[in-house]
Design brief:
It is a single chain. The chain is α/β, with parallel strands linked by helices. It has a domain of about 120 residues: Aspartate Aminotransferase, domain 1, CATH 3.90.1150.10. It has 16 helices and 16 strands. Strand 6, helix 6 and strand 7 form a beta-alpha-beta unit. The longest helix has 22 residues. Bound molecules: pyridoxal-5'-phosphate. Pyridoxal-5'-phosphate binds next to helix 3, strand 4 and helix 4.
């Protein structure tokens, strides 16, 4: 079975480490790996300030708060995103204002951005969707002069460069996710990098935060273990399937976003916490391998482009991406006709492809109205949601697997 989700970057060594980690509850919270992760980000990005949290959504929240964002303010962000990127704005009391996307690269549309900026706009969250760089230089030109803060949402990539500069270094702060389906799959985690002075305050305040609950931390580590077993033993006497069934049926693992967060935009109990050592340990193991993981992503992207362009299916539209030397996307997006049928067809043939994002503020259970999104306000985003398909690009995917994915897409339309 080929998976796009389910902690896709967890490899055998990460799995063994997760087993070791879960058995040492005494090391869940304090420990050497928190400092190691911080140092890794400081060195990799060459920044002065790094603060770490239990999730990127908390990272976004703390940055907004530190920048003084409050009730009555507006924060711009693109539609075609995840509710976890929107809720932090709401938690500050500010109003999220949604900007439409460019359907060629799924990032913020510059013309629509100009329409949405006004005197209440205090910050903009620039999302690099699927890891493809948004035109952050043009965005800077538009909003920079107005004193609007720029926060880069780098949840989908660690290391991609735009015009020779790493994403995360273009604005006032860069926020990264260490979540299960992100560039490194370490259960949960969020990192804020900045060279601005307010980064020092973030670092200071982080020291006084509490850790998430022990039970929650354990469940998240267990997710890494369950996800790995599910993926690797899926076809072995249905063991993987059984493991997944038992874990979810008995609530041994939890979703990445709680029901209340999705439906009501509520802040989860464990938000606004420090990064536990256990998550940092899992993250650090993958960060050390980031060069290999990223090379894989870029090479597989090239392969998808080359092969799919060659087949030239008129039902399949490739993104207008320039795949440069330092471009490491999380997933490879396509716009396809009859997407839901294709997803089913692929599943029957042993592959679970992705549908990020199938609604403007994903996932489907999200009450769009409660997020502040108005139906019809971002027409390109809504259109893209109907036909978006994501192909896997993770570390254990072989070239042969990618060719199988392409073959299934071809078979579906031919
Ligand atoms: C674009 C984007 N930003 C932010 C987040 C939040 O990341 P985390 O799950 O670490 O809070 C997510 C993930 O859900 C995301 O997809």
């Amino acid at each position: 079975m080929i998976f796009t989700s389910l902690s896709p970057n967890t490899q055998r060594d990460d799995f063994l480490l997760a087993l070791k980690t879960i058995l040492k509850p005494g090391e869940y919270f304090e420990g050497e790996y928190i400092g190691k992760v911080k140092k890794w980000f400081k060195d990799f990005f060459g920044v002065f300030h790094v603060s770490v949290y239990e999730s990127a959504r908390s990272g976004l929240y703390f940055v907004l708060k530190e920048l003084g964002i409050k009730e009555g303010d507006e924060v711009l962000l693109q539609a075609f995103t995840c509710v976890a990127a929107v809720n932090p704005v709401k938690w500050t009391g500010a109003r999220p204002v949604f900007v439409d996307i460019n359907p060629k690269d799924f990032n913020m549309d510059i013309d629509d951005l100009e329409n949405k900026v006004n005197e209440k706009t205090k910050a903009i969250i620039v999302q690099h969707t699927f890891g493809y760089p948004a035109k952050v230089n043009e965005i800077k030109e538009i909003v920079g002069r107005k004193g609007i803060y720029i926060i880069e949402d780098c949840a989908h990539t660690i290391g991609t460069e735009y015009m020779g500069k790493k994403l995360g270094l273009w604005g006032d702060a860069g926020v990264f996710s260490l979540g299960r389906d992100k560039a490194v799959s370490a259960s949960f985690g969020g990192v804020v990098i900045t060279n601005r002075k307010f980064g020092k305050n973030l670092e200071e305040k982080e020291k006084f935060l509490s850790f998430p609950q022990k039970k929650w931390v354990k469940k998240q580590i267990l997710y890494t273990i369950v996800a790995f077993l599910t993926r690797t033993l899926y076809e072995v006497l249905f063991i993987g399937k059984l493991v997944h069934y038992i874990a979810t049926r008995w609530n041994l693992v939890e979703k990445a976003t709680t029901e209340e967060e999705k439906k009501e935009g509520e802040m989860p109990d464990n938000a606004r916490s420090k990064l536990p050592n256990a998550f940092a340990r899992l993250a650090f193991n993958q960060l050390r391998k980031i060069g290999i993981l990223n090379k894989k992503r870029r090479d597989l992207s090239h392969l998808y482009v080359k092969r799919l362009s060659k087949i030239g299916l008129e039902e399949v539209k490739l993104p207008e991406w320039k795949i440069g030397e330092h471009f490491y996307p999380l997933r490879f997006p396509l716009l396809v006709k009859r997407r839901d049928e294709l997803l089913k067809f692929a599943q029957e043939r042993g592959m679970l492809l992705g549908d990020w994002y199938d609604v403007p503020i994903a996932p489907k259970q999200v009450d769009q109205v409660k997020t502040g999104y108005k139906q019809g306000s971002c027409v390109y985003a809504e259109k893209v949601c109907e036909s978006i398909l994501n192909l896997p690009l993770h570390s254990d995917l072989t070239e042969e697997d990618a060719l199988k994915v392409i073959a299934v897409i071809r078979d579906f339309y031919l």
